[in-house]
Structures are given as C-alpha cells and as structure tokens.
User: What shape does this take?
Amino acid sequence: MTLLLVGGGVWRATDQGVFRGAQGNAYTPWHDWREADGTPLALVKAGILAANPHNTQPWVFEVSEGRIVLYADRRRHLGNFDPYRREMYLGLGCALENMLQAAGPNGYAASLTVASGDLSLEQPYDGLVQVAELRLAPAPAMPNPLYAAIERRHTHRGPYRDTRLSAMQRDGLRAQVDGERVGIHLVDDPEVLARLGTVVVRATRAIIDDHAMVADSERWFRHSRREIEKYRDGTTLDAAGLSPVMTTLAKMLPRPDAETNHRYWLEATERVQVATAPAMGLILVDDLYDIQQTLAAGRNWQRLHLWATTQGLAMQPLNQPVERVDREAELGLEPAARRELAALLPGDPRRPTFAFRVGVAESPARPSPRRSVADTLVDGDIPSIGRAST
Ligand SMILES: Cc1cc2nc3c(=O)[nH]c(=O)nc-3n(C[C@H](O)[C@H](O)[C@H](O)COP(=O)(O)O)c2cc1C
Assistant: This one.
C-alpha cells in the first residue's frame, strides 16, 4: 500500500504508524504490569490500566510499604466536557477497583477510605487532591479471575453481533453491582432499547453543536503515532472500533478539524454503536454529585467490565446523555437530557451517572495508550503542585 502513495503520503504512512497498530512504548504498561507482583506497586500498575474518561488518566499515586494514596491530578481534566469533574471521579473509582482486585492476588488485604463531599462547578484547574487511601496488610495470596482480566479489558467501540444476552449473562452483570447507593438498570427490551439509543444519539448531537464541549474533547484526541508516543494518553484511531482497512485509511488522512472529527463520532454512535447494541444499561446513584457515590459508581463500572471480559462480552460507555445533564446544569439550559433520562426510569428517584452498551463484538478491541507507572508516582512531599484536601 505504501508503494501506491506519493510524496507526503508515504511520509504520512510512516509518521502515523499506519501499519503498526496499537504497539510501542505507549502500550508497554499493558504488557509489563505483572513485573512488580507481590509489592504495593503491583496495585498501581493494575490501577493505571483502568477505564477513565477520554483516557485522561487523571491520577497520581503515593506508594509506601503498607499504604497507597490516590490523588486526582486536576490538570488532567476534560474542561467543559466534564464541568463538575464527575467523570474524572468515575475514572478514579475505576482505578480504585483495579487496585482492590489486585490486592488479594498480590498477598494483601486492603482497607479503603475515600474522600467525602460534593462535586461542584468550582473545580480548580491544577494541584493534586486526595481521593482515597488504601491500607495494606499482608494476607495469603488469593487467585482472582477479575484481576487476570485486567489486561484483556478494553473499551469496544466497534459493531456488536445481533445476539441477545442470555438470562445468565444479564443476572451475572447485575450481580457485579453492589453498594448501598449504586444500582444498575439493564435494558434489552427492543422498544426501551430504541428509546435509550435515541437519547444517546440526541445527546451526541447536542454535544457536537456545543463548540466548547467539542474543543475540550478534541484536546485529548491523539491522531499521529508521534502524539501517542509523546503523550501516551487520549483517544486514538486504533481504539475507535474501525475496521483494519478504515483504521489505515483514517490514519493516512490529515487530522480532521475538531468539528469534522466529532461528526464522525456522531455517525459511529448512531450507525454502529447504538444500531448494533443488543443491550444497554445505566448505572444509578442517589446523588449525581456526591463524591463517594461517584467513586463507587466508577468502581462498579470497572468491575462490570472486568467480569464481562471474563465472559467474552464487549462493553462501551455511551455517556453522552449524562455529559449533557452536567452541561445543561452548568449553563442553566432547559434540562432536556435530564428529563429524557428520567422518563426511562419512571417512579425511580435515582439518577443515571453512566450509560453503556454490552454485547458480543464482531472482532477484538485494541488497547489504548498509557503513561508509564513512573509518571504517575509522587513521593510523600508534593508541594510543587500543591496538595489540597477535600
Ligand atoms: C466516566 C467515563 C466516561 C466514558 N465515556 C465514554 C463514552 O461516552 N464513549 C466511549 O467510547 N468511551 C467512553 N469511556 C471510555 C474511555 O474513553 C476509555 O476508558 C479510555 O479511553 C481508556 O481506554 P480503555 O477503557 O480501552 O482502557 C468512558 C470512560 C469513563 C470512565
């Protein structure tokens, strides 16, 4: 294929890593994550492989023999896409879940303490804020299939097969959700599924009409291999769920402008992700902006996705409706997304904080990049970027 190209096209094919796929240093954390087994660092190496919004990886860890402190790195935010940093805290909850799943197999009993308080629009743009502390005590090592699934869990954005979930799969998913204040609402009835799909597509349209949201989402999109190797974060073409041919073609084209890029996203959402979803779901909380519930909801998403991975099921968050709920609240807009979500849960006072789809994918998902674990560590003395408390 390279031979058919001329001039800049040949250069671009190399620059873009067109034929390389999701490989290289930016993907090493998926392969060497077991190298610190039996030490507290093993838990952090598991933590950084967790799901997180736009692959912002908003975490910093302070590790000592019997203790790991998790901080939110407030610089790694989604701006107008996440004005309350609700998604940031969901992602921090995902990291906590991976760490907790890693404790037993690495010979630790972990006890968790999390920050409390409310998320608000007054979110500082820098500094670290403590989110959770894990106290580790030695314990007999215990195998754990969810721990083993950490390296195989990837967000799957491609087409899913036209196969309904079995009752066992639905019950299995529901059984992963625990926590007094977190619930799950699974949808596979075709009529309700179509309604939820419409809500997702409508919210995606509202996002692409909101230039500030588009701009802040685009900041985390990494188009070229160079960007991926430099930043080792963000969303990539390799992880977009395109076919191998389309992935290659998209990499060869110049980076589209933000509006065009997000129109492709709308198309994929409508024609592939919603159109082929045999089931969707919502993670519910009592209070959308309570920090502890948000962390718990993130932990539940990560656990659901790990369990689904052990069962050969693919999953993808489709969280646009809740992103719009936050944006509507921030700007004092007509609460359209909020009302549409509430209409899907008649009589239920709880509120969705996370929407997703689940099914059997047509082909495997590719991994997304990760910063090295060393880049996520601080020692006990962190005044340079400021320590705040919740
Ligand atoms: C709070 C939250 C919201 C997310 N929303 C979306 C979404 O709307 N669409 C999507 O495709 N992925 C979404 N994701 C998935 C992330 O983009 C993904 O976890 C990240 O890029 C890392 O990739 P990985 O999960 O394959 O490791 C979300 C993840 C989290 C934790």
In short: The first strand starts at residue 59 and ends at 64.
